[in-house]
Design goal:
The chain is of the alpha/beta class. It has one domain: BirA Bifunctional Protein, domain 2, CATH 3.30.930. The longest helix has 16 residues, at 19-34. The protein is globular. It contains seven helices and twelve strands. Helix 3 (104-119) packs across helix 7 (231-246). It starts with 8 loop residues before the first strand and ends with a strand.
């Protein structure tokens, strides 16, 4: 199997869809790549309506369904791991690519470099995390329910504050190539902070800790550069960053799932 960086890619801007559509589409693209039906793919998309996504193994009890209904938020489960995310004012990226023998952190590093290369064109202070927290210990605490409560190694940030939350899954088969699906949320505005309002937590103190953590440990692009950063502007620089990093040409499919 040739290196992914030497292959042609396809780029899909599929626009705004429901949570179930977005997650099913990511899985479908991974399957199609594994069967040789499509090129490695960078997809960008948004969420309509806004939605809360839970990590693959996360308890559904972490989310207050009645509160979500009041706000008009969908609830969906991701095919990847990690913790809860409110997909609101953001751009979500999705990458399906051949593993090519690369480990989890290698792929995270490669994709993060592409994200950083693009996002630096909006905010020059974008970088990625180099340390790794103890997630086994962290996940035992209720305040860790939000994905954006901590940054993993190679996750994208601005001045130590998390800008992009990402998760990865691998699809392997005895007679087919191993495929990586990685997707993540790029925060465009502060609306993700509403997540604290729809979580099931035991005490007001825990809720206050979550509110403070999201406020102190996250940042969005618009706040970072003191102007409104749009979905379309971000889409353009993300594609540019991937083209530079992957050293590949990208075939464009606007609004289509190929």
């Amino acid at each position: 199997m040739p290196e992914s960086s030497n292959l042609k890619w396809q780029f899909i801007n599929s626009g705004f869809h429901s949570g179930s559509f977005n997650m099913e589409c990511d899985i479908d693209l991974a399957g199609k790549l594994q069967r040789g039906e499509i090129l490695p793919t960078l997809r960008i998309y948004g969420w309509k309506p806004w939605a809360v996504s839970l990590g693959y193994n996360q308890s559904g009890n972490d989310i207050n369904e009645n509160k979500c209904s009041e706000y008009g938020f969908d609830i969906v489960r991701r095919p990847t791991g990690g913790r809860a995310i409110l997909h609101a004012n953001e751009l979500t990226y999705s990458v399906v690519m051949f593993a090519d023998g690369k480990g989890i952190t290698e792929i995270y590093s490669l994709i993060s470099k592409a994200l950083v290369a693009g996002l630096k064109k909006i905010c020059p202070e974008v970088s990625y995390e180099t340390s790794q927290p103890n997630f086994q210990s962290l996940y035992k605490k209720q305040e860790s329910i939000p994905c954006f409560s901590a940054s993993a190694r190679y996750e994208v940030q601005i001045k130590g504050k998390k800008l992009v939350g990402s998760a990865q899954r691998r699809f392997s088969s005895a007679d087919l190539p191993e495929i990586v699906l990685q997707h993540g949320s790029i925060l465009l505005g502060p609306e993700h902070k509403l997540l604290a309002e729809i979580l099931n937590v035991e005490t007001d103190e825990v809720k206050e800790k979550i509110v403070n953590d999201i406020g102190s440990k996250t940042i969005d692009l618009s706040s970072a550069v003191h102007r409104t950063v749009t979905f379309d502007e971000t889409a353009s620089v993300i594609l540019s960053g991937f083209e530079e990093t992957m050293e590949s040409s990208f075939h464009h499919h606007q609004g289509a799932i190929i």
